[in-house]
Write a structure and sequence with these properties.
By secondary structure, the chain is of the alpha+beta class. It has helices at about 5-10, 15-20, 30-40, 45-60, 85-105, and strands spanning about 25, 65-70, 75-80. The chain starts with 5 loop residues before the first helix and ends in an 11-residue tail after the last helix.
Length: about 120
Amino acid sequence: MTEISSDVIRGCNDTIILYCLLSEPSYGYEISKMIKTKSEGKYIIKETTLYSAFSRMEKNGYVESYSGEAEGSGKKRTYYRITDEGRKYYTEKCEEWTLTKEVIERFIEENSNGNY
């Protein structure tokens, strides 16, 4: 199986993370599990990548962090929630992706066997 290069997906990490926060706040480990599950194991985000994205997006006003307790364990966790500015940014990134995909697909040649 071909793995996704970190260079290729780097520009999409914010979109992926914000997607995971659209419906409810969450914390790092849970978001990384969501990403792995949603991508069917084809993309596993590195912890350093995830937390540097959180830091950058919080600085830009796209997410807010807050401290909360894990259910049942009493352990403190840092949770993240998407802001209104983050929702706007997510929409812009989705529109940008649609355009990017349209352009790149013009340069992908698939033969009759479905191979490249």
